């Protein structure tokens, strides 16, 4: 049996990752989530529902900074560290303290705790937000220049991983995700807002002119790459981009949603957000080589699945 610890296990990505890991018979999963945003409590409980029926899954609702990590890490061979305070928009001003606490301090505490463990891998989940504004495809050796305090906090987590690897030999792997979407996406994220707005005929806020493009990555593609990192050889010390199959502008996404929902969107254009790059585009050749990664989900089929999920969870 391989025992894996997943932090942020009740979140959008964490719950999908735990479910996928538990499809592998020889794996048991210890999930941790601090439920740090009370507004998401119901969503997280819903995300955990299926997991809690699995005898190879145990869950602990605890803040990483206060957890008895020695006990939780007992027998653990691999750590997936997803727990973080998300969001570019809310990382400015006094809110930044939460990003320091949950993205930097909690990561350092976890790294200290794993120094005592004979881990096979410590997989740190990072973000394309560390890159900032880049022209064209961005590869992992591009110099990170984050545009937001959120990006700075996640990049700091990466650097902490690297110094602990250098000094304590922790077997670090860093995965940088590019704009994830799909079922269970948080309600404050763009696609969820867009779908809800069109369904309920409410105006949708678009920040900027809507022509900004993103490398959209469907959740199941991302999870396959993340699980592949568990078994891949030669990835210790590597930083790997995880991007999608399709790039599109925000206005193109709205157009696809209008077709799928057979309703017109009402758009309300707002000032462009501070800290948001105009374009993101992942060079995933390293993920293809090291993880045999090949994203298969199109934007349209992924959006259909997300629409179906939102309809399922919306009270009639």
Q: Care to describe what's here?
A:
This protein is α/β, with parallel strands linked by helices and 316 residues long. It has a single domain, classed as 3-Layer(aba) Sandwich (Rossmann fold), CATH 3.40.50.720. Helix content is 37%, strand content 19%. It contains 10 helices and 12 strands. The chain has helices at 12-21, 41-48, 69-72, 96-114, 149-168, 190-199, 219-231, 250-261, 285-291, 299-313, and strands at residues 2-7, 27-33, 57-61, 78-81, 121-127, 172-177, 180-181, 204-207, 213-218, 239-242, 246-249, 267-270. Helix 1 (12-21) crosses helix 7. The protein is globular. The model has no long low-confidence stretch (mean pLDDT 97).
List keywords for this structure.
single chain; 316 residues; alpha/beta; Rossmann fold; three-stranded mixed sheet; seven-stranded parallel sheet
Tertiary shape = globular
The sequence of SSEs as H and E is EHEHEHEHEHEEHEEHEEHEHH
Assigned CATH class: Alpha Beta
The overall average pLDDT, rounded, is 97
Distance between the termini: 43 Å
User: How does the major sheet shape up?
Assistant: 7 strands, parallel
CATH superfamily: NAD(P)-binding Rossmann-like Domain
Q: What is the number of domains?
A: 1
* Radius of gyration (Å): 19 Å
Widest β-sheet, arrangement of strands: 3-2-1-4-5-6-10
Ranges with pLDDT <50 over ≥5 residues? none
Number of DSSP-assigned strands: 12
Q: Quickly count the helices.
A: 10
Kindly report the oligomeric state of this protein. single chain
Topology-level CATH name: Rossmann fold
Strand content: 15-25%
| Helical fraction | 25-40%
CATH architecture: 3-Layer(aba) Sandwich
Which class of secondary structure composition applies to the elements? alpha/beta
């Amino acid at each position: 049996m391989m025992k894996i610890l997943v932090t942020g296990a009740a979140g959008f990505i964490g719950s999908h990752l735990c479910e996928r890991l538990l499809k592998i018979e020889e794996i048991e999963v210890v999930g941790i989530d601090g439920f740090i945003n009370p507004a998401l409590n119901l969503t997280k409980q819903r995300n955990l529902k299926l997991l809690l029926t699995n005898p190879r899954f145990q869950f602990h609702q605890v803040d990483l900074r206060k957890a008895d990590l020695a006990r939780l890490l007992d027998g653990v061979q691999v750590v997936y560290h997803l727990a973080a305070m998300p969001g570019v928009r809310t990382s400015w001003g006094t809110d930044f303290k939460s990003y320091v606490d949950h993205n930097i301090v909690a990561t350092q505490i976890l790294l200290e705790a794993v120094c005592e463990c004979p881990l096979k891998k410590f997989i740190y989940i990072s973000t394309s937000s560390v890159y900032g504004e880049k022209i064209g495809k961005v590869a992992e050796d591009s110099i990170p220049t984050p545009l937001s305090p959120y990006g700075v906090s996640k990049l700091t987590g990466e650097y902490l991983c690297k110094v602990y690897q250098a000094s304590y030999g922790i077997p670090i792997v860093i995965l940088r995700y590019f704009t994830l979407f799909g079922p269970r996406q948080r309600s404050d994220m763009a696609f969820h807002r867009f779908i809800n707005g069109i369904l309920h005929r409410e105006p949708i806020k678009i920040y900027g002119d809507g022509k900004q493009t993103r490398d959209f990555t469907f959740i199941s593609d991302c999870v396959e790459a993340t699980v592949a990192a568990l078994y891949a050889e030669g990835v210790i010390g590597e930083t790997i981009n995880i991007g999608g199959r399709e790039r599109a502008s925000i206005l193109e996404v709205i157009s696809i949603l209008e077709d799928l929902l057979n309703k017109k969107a009402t758009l309300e254009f707002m000032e462009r957000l501070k800290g948001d790059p105009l374009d993101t585009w992942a060079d995933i050749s390293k993920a293809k080589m090291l993880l045999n990664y090949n994203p298969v989900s199109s934007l349209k089929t992924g959006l259909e699945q997300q629409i179906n999920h939102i309809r399922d969870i919306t009270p009639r």
